[in-house]
Specification:
alpha+beta; Beta-Lactamase; 4 domains; seven-stranded mixed β-sheet; 15 helices; 19% strand
Length: 624
């Protein structure tokens, strides 16, 4: 592979990772902005609802407070005390009725009553009306019993005629600690309820509810919800304690608590998605009215909060996606420029190294030619001394042949040198033009010519050196193919059957030449082992297992004796006849596999023996 190819900008894994990162960033931004916008919207909606709830609660408490003192004042009135002391005196009755009527008009209440200690109404502000309670026994009314027992009573009721909300204040009348009777003031809350209903029908921002201690809705801005028994407060209180929304429905609203907000507020909505769109959601706000034992609750429409949160999330998602795509584009552009610069630098470095190698090879060749010329001269001088000897003639002939060889080597070197200079110059021009495919072909030709020159000069050297392994991605199917090609003649001559089972896409991290050396050694040993076998079968398998690449070479020979198995990989140990091997093949093969990061193993099969080893696997989309 040429040096510059590793710098090409084809990086599908990095591009895919960048797209995934942009998508993940957009999703995270959408989720965060949606959650943040919804939380802010709920907070603003809750603040507005709490302000309105304070206003409504203040109005209701003010209306109740301005009448609460009235029973106590009437309980001290002389006309009332005189009547209760002499309830059958007509003159005192008339004075008490007039007094109650005047107070009722000034206070704006519905009616004021004076009952004796037995609960019989003795005087009333509406004594002149047909529906007056004068003479009626109201001892069974809750406010009468509470006033007698507790000293003061409050009671809410609905009017029988118009279903209007009414409220009763009761105060006992005492003289020297003795109970004389009870004064009752009845007021109407219908103006307040009507105001709430009218406000809800005009703007419909909230629904206001007043619940008594039994979770009964006594006042509501939604007329259909009045006098309904609900479990709203109990479920909300339990949800606060358990810190999770309850699963039961809230009666009569057919809604459930979907979420618990800050400060104990709730989000109410249908328990499951309905056909209607958009989905109806409410947020709650509460306020206690401790004196009356009531709780005011407001339900605010939260649909706009969800819509605004979705719009904000969509806008943030589009913006984050745009920023992410812009970042990916800039990063890819920068990477492409950097890759192009690195490729140019790598090509220049390869060119400089090639020029240096050519100069070094030329110097070596020149030195070898000078040495040959010196030897030829010496041999010619010796030839003059031993001219008459036949051996001298033969020696001279050999020197002539040696001169021819030297001339041939010189010719073989000069041709690649000329081609290398031309290809190098042409490559620089092609790189300037950006014709990378032709640059690749030229560099491959340069590499082949340099390899050819190396082989020629290596033949002239008298020593050998151990080259370090060049690890890289190797297609295992190709290595097996090259091995079988080298052994093809022997396999055909010895009539050996082949069984090849190879995963053609497996790549391993190793050196191709050394891997083929191992495969040739193992296959040659297998062929030697089957020399006397009646049926000869050479089996080669390549497969993937546990993240590793595995290679196995098996034969149908007699197998490996147990006493030999333990010494197979010892240097200079061999079971072959003298002169047929040095006993270094398996030892060298084991060392090569160990350098690749694997291990060479041997074991017997049902009909023969097998050698197998593992290699580091390279995925197809990885970059090495």
């Amino acid at each position: 592979m040429p040096v510059f190819r590793k710098f090409l900008p084809a990086r599908p894994v990095l591009i895919a990772a960048a797209w995934i990162g942009v998508f993940g960033l957009s999703v995270a931004a959408v989720c965060f902005s949606y959650s943040w916008s919804k939380r802010i919207g709920y907070a603003q909606l809750g603040e507005t609802a709490a302000h309105r709830l304070d206003l409504y609660a203040t109005g209701l408490e003010s209306e109740l407070g301005k009448h609460e003192y009235l029973p106590g004042v009437l309980a001290l009135d002389q006309a009332v005390l005189a009547l209760l002391a002499a309830p059958d005196d007509p003159q005192l009755l008339e004075q008490a009725n007039q007094r109650l009527a005047n107070v009722n008009v000034r206070a704006g209440s519905l009616a004021t009553l004076v009952m004796d200690k037995d609960g019989l109404v003795r005087a009333a502000s509406n004594w002149y009306q047909s529906d007056s309670a004068v003479g009626k026994d109201l001892s069974k009314q809750p406010y009468f019993a509470d006033a007698v027992r507790n000293g003061q009573a409050h009671f809410f009721a609905r009017g029988a005629a118009r279903d209007a909300p009414e409220y009763y204040f009761a105060q006992p009348v005492l003289r020297e600690g003795a109970l004389l009777g009870v004064v009752v003031v009845k007021i109407s809350l219908e103006p307040i309820e009507s105001t709430w209903i009218a406000s809800a029908s005009q703007t419909n921002p909230e629904i206001f509810l007043v619940l008594d201690e039994n979770d009964v809705i006594i006042i509501a801005s939604a007329p259909d919800w009045k006098n309904q028994k609900t479990n709203l407060l109990s479920l909300m209180l339990r949800a606060r304690r358990e810190n999770e929304p309850p699963t039961e429905l809230i009666v009569p609203f057919n809604m459930a608590s979907m979420e618990i907000l800050e400060h104990g507020s709730h989000v109410l909505g249908p328990p499951a998605p309905r056909q209607a769109s958009p989905r109806k959601l409410y947020t709650t706000q509460e306020r206690s009215m401790l004196r009356q034992g009531w709780r005011m609750v407001t339900l605010s429409d939260a649909g706009s909060v969800i819509v605004n949160a979705r719009q904000t999330a969509f806008g943030v998602g589009v913006l984050s996606a745009f920023i992410g795509l812009l970042g990916v584009y800039l990063a890819q552009r920068r990477s492409a420029l950097a890759s192009r610069l690195r490729a140019r630098e790598a090509l220049q470095q390869a060119h400089d190294e090639l020029e240096l190698r050519i100069a070094r090879r030329t110097a070596e060749l020149h030195q070898m030619n000078q040495e040959l010329l010196r030897e030829i001269g010496e041999r010619k001088r010796a030839e003059q001394v031993l001219r008459e000897s036949q051996d001298d003639l033969l020696h001279a002939s050999r020197l002539a042949v040696l001169g021819q060889i030297s001339a041939g080597v010189t010719h073989e070197i000069n041709q690649p040198l000329t081609a290398l200079r031309s290809l190098s110059y042409n490559t620089r021009l092609l790189l300037t033009r950006g014709e990378t495919e032709r640059v690749d072909k030229n560099l491959q030709s340069i590499a082949d010519l340099a390899e050819r020159m190396g082989r020629l000069t290596e033949q002239l050297k008298s020593f050998a050196r151990k080259a370090p392994p060049m690890l890289g991605p190797v297609l295992l199917a190709k290595a097996v193919e090259n091995t079988l090609l080298l052994l093809e003649n022997r396999i055909r001559t010895e009539e050996v059957a082949l069984q090849v089972d190879i995963d053609g896409a497996l790549l391993a991290l190793c050196d191709a030449n050394r891997l083929e050396q191992v495969l040739i050694n193992l296959c040659a040993n297998a062929l030697d082992a089957m020399s006397a076998a009646p049926a000869k079968t050479l089996a080669i398998a390549v497969w993937r297992a546990d993240g590793r690449a595995w290679v196995r070479v098996g034969d149908s020979g007699p197998g490996i004796p147990p006493e030999v198995m333990g010494r197979l990989f010892e240097p200079f140990f061999s079971t072959k006849l003298s002169g047929q091997g040095l006993g270094l093949g398996l030892a060298i093969s084991a060392d090569i596999v160990r350098e690749f990061g694997g291990a060479l193993l041997a074991h017997n099969l049902a009909g023969g023996a097998a050698f197998e080893f593992d290699l580091n696997l390279i995925e197809e989309n990885s970059h090495v």
